[in-house]
Design a protein that fits this description.
heterodimer, A: about 270 residues, mainly alpha, B: Tick-borne Encephalitis virus Glycoprotein, domain 1, four-stranded antiparallel β-sheet, about 35% helix, binds protoporphyrin IX containing FE
């Protein structure tokens, strides 16, 4: 099995997942269809695993050297975390998000055959690299969702129709998202230790990741101590999301970014 | 949890956010004043055994405070969320400064006076971190002392963070990072520390062989006038290999032959395997608009030989980039004074632990590329790592717990 077989495989997987999506959509109306959705998602997932297994045997090394190869792993683990979260918390949108992201990585690989061989510098070839990126993808998704919930809460307060369930949902999302964020931070530290000899160097990206983490930490503690002050809590949540956005997109534009190890400019 | 109470005078029991922020800002200002009038402190560079005394002493003080002084106004305040949130906000503020001002030498007088470019060794940062650790430590002790299973997740998170952070800070003085240049065929024993001081190692390292595996070089289009790479619509550059066919804008490129290691001959390149023989490729470029065809050789060159590009028309040339490293590693022997030796291989992301040191493959002579006979090895000694990792893995467990439990707790106790 080689990359030459990939178009066939990826298209079959995507096809299966699309059917899964359709059933997931129907399940909002008729709950029993969720089973069909799971079935199609899982079959697609097993096809993917099969492809990776054969690719691994063919290459005679773990397929983790190129960007295309790492995308395969993202596509593999995203559904796993999506399902785990679904079984624990029953968030259908989150399952859809993870399957959608996984599908997107397959499509990127399909559309850019030349990136199959795009090179990955040795420092990135670490077993911590994929979990590090993955848990961040999840955490950002869940925390972004918590911000949408916060907006709903603000509107509720404005219209004096605030529903306590709204902020409880926001809480739950923040707890889940914060757990992923912590894992992302710590996996990053463990990886840095293996690759660069030190777990934390206050690199600009690390600084902003830390600030994001602290922002949500404030929210969690504020909520715990002042369960009644909804408006203030929602404001903290909104601010924390602003920091997250800076961390995600903005760091490269800040004056501090000159010497960051996290900006991989490819020539 | 306390419902919001009626009006209370400042400094009247229990202290809330106002008092917390007054105290916190006081610490901050004290820190800045010390920075300006006393100058740099070296508390973060405490070395063994003093840092161990500080670590144990601080923990002891917190236990004593909790055990015998928990009725005290200040201790009660420190145990509550307002103090904690204040300390978290202040740490966030200091780190924010770090995220705004580059932490390098500055020409700005104000930045220098206020010490904004070295926050991690700033007095204010030190004071606030102490405040932060005090809050965190006390509340952790409180929950541990309750001995309840429902505090399991709480203790994992708070104690984990406490250990990782505290050990990381006091341990940084014992952190030793040395870099050692080793050359193929000779033993090395003198490394340089972070301040470029010579340090003699308790063992010698003999570099047997330094190896690089490279990716194939890439193909790129260069603007003849500007001499710059032309961005191929944001796509990546293509790896060169025999038989590959690529399209750049209106050019259709075929790679007829690729030689990994070659030398220039009369009208092209031929396989040669010597020091510094660069890769080369014979390519054919067809302009799909004008149907012009150009055929010729390109080579990335090496430290020995010049590179060669192929001019395909008035505007553009084709070039071969210098191959990037896929993997580099050093076969080394570690030689001990007692004559024993250990053979191992160092690779990026695969360090080797020996006698309290971790040995990392750091770099090599870039200019020489795969013919480098120099391998730079980094040696890191961090005796506090076990404590830090205990904290880190507790936090990982705590995060998993948090994911699984969500904020269920709160709903139950409400
Ligand atoms: C890993 C980071 C942290 C996490 C995940 C975390 C999580 C939590 C959670 C979930 C609670 C609610 C209590 C419960 O559910 O039992 C809580 C309470 C609390 N946390 Fe944290 N926290 C963290 C860091 C901190 C820090 C840095 C401080 C202080 C500087 C702190 C101080 C407190 C305090 C004072 C309480 C109230 C405890 C009580 O009243 O008994 N936490 N924390």
């Amino acid at each position: 099995m080689t990359w030459l077989d990939f178009p066939l495989f990826s298209m079959s997987i995507i096809g299966l997942w699309i059917i899964g999506f359709i059933f997931l959509g129907i399940s909002y109306k008729k709950e029993q269809f969720i089973k069909w959705s799971f079935a199609f998602f899982s079959i697609g997932w097993f096809v993917l695993i099969y492809f990776i297994k054969d690719l691994w045997i063919e290459l005679d090394r773990p397929p983790m050297r190129t960007l295309g190869e790492t995308r395969l792993w993202y596509a593999t683990f995203l559904p796993l975390v999506g399902f785990l979260t679904y079984f624990r918390w029953k968030f259908k949108w989150f399952l859809a998000y993870s399957m959608g992201m996984a599908g997107m990585f397959l499509v990127i690989n399909y559309l850019n055959p030349e990136t199959y061989s795009k090179t990955l510098m040795p420092a990135l070839q670490s077993p911590w690299f994929i979990p590090h990126v993955l848990v961040y993808l999840f955490s950002y998704a869940v925390l972004a969702a918590s911000s949408f919930v916060a907006i709903k809460g603000f509107i509720g307060i404005r219209k004096q129709k605030f529903d306590i369930a709204t902020i409880q949902l926001a809480d739950n999302l923040v707890y889940i998202g914060f757990a992923f964020l912590t894992l992302g931070l710590l996996f990053g530290a463990l990886w840095a230790k293996e690759a660069w000899g030190h777990y934390w160097t206050w690199d600009p990206k690390e600084v902003w990741a830390f600030l994001t983490w602290m922002g949500y930490l404030i929210y969690i503690h504020y909520r715990y101590f002042h369960p009644q002050k909804n408006k203030q809590a929602l404001t903290i949540l909104a601010l924390a999301f602003v920091v997250l956005i800076v961390c995600w997109f903005g760091v490269n534009y800040l004056p501090v970014a000159q010497a960051s190890v996290h900006t991989y400019t490819q020539t | 949890m306390k419902p919001d109470r009626e009006k209370r005078m400042l400094w009247e029991n229990p202290w809330g956010y106002t008092e917390s922020f007054i105290i916190g800002i006081g610490l901050l200002l004290t820190g800045f004043a010390l920075e300006m009038f006393v100058g740099r402190q070296s508390a973060f560079e405490l070395v063994f055994p003093y840092n161990l005394y500080i670590f144990l002493g601080f923990n002891l003080i917190l236990v004593i405070l909790y055990k015998w002084f928990s009725k005290n106004q200040i201790v009660r305040w420190l145990l509550k969320v307002p103090a904690s949130i204040t300390s978290i906000v202040l740490v966030t503020f200091m780190v924010l400064l770090m995220g705004i001002f580059p932490q390098i030498n500055s020409t700005n007088a104000l930045v220098n006076t206020l010490g904004l470019n070295h926050i991690t060794t700033h007095w204010a940062f030190l004071l606030i971190i102490i405040f932060f650790l005090t809050c965190l430590g006390l509340v952790t002790i409180k929950r541990i002392a309750q001995l309840k299973w429902k505090n399991f997740g709480f203790v994992l998170n708070h104690l984990g963070l406490y250990l990782a952070l505290f050990a990381g800070i006091v341990g940084s003085g014992d952190l030793q990072r040395l870099s050692l240049d080793t050359y193929e065929g000779s033993p090395s024993i003198h490394a340089l520390d972070m301040n470029n001081q010579k340090v003699e190692l308790p063992f010698a390292i003999y570099l047997k062989d330094f190896k690089i595996e490279e990716y194939n070089p890439k193909l790129a289009l260069v603007d003849n006038e500007k001499g710059e790479l032309v961005h191929n619509n944001g796509k990546n550059l293509y790896l060169i290999d025999s038989g590959k066919v690529y399209n750049f804008e209106e050019y259709h490129v075929r790679i007829l032959k690729f030689l990994e290691s070659s030398g220039r001959i009369e009208n092209g390149y031929a396989f040669v395997n010597e020091q510094g023989s660069p890769p080369s490729a014979e390519i054919e470029v067809i302009n799909t608009k004008t149907k012009d065809t150009v055929k010729g050789w390109i080579s990335s060159g090496s430290f020995r030989h010049p590179f060669e590009s192929l001019k395909i028309d008035a505007k553009y040339s084709m070039v071969m980039t210098i191959p990037e490293a896929k993997k580099f590693s050093s076969d080394i022997s570690i030689l001990n004074i007692d004559g024993s030796r250990i053979e191992t291989t160092l690779e990026v992301n695969k360090p080797y632990s020996y006698k309290g040191y971790k040995l990392y493959q750091l770099s090599y002579d870039d200019a020489m590329g795969k013919w480098s006979t120099l391998s730079v090895i980094e040696l890191v000694r961090d005796p506090w790592l076990p404590v830090i990792y205990t904290g880190v893995f507790m936090m990982i467990a705590g995060a998993v717990y948090m994911f699984w439990m969500g904020n269920k707790f709160k709903k139950e106790t409400k």
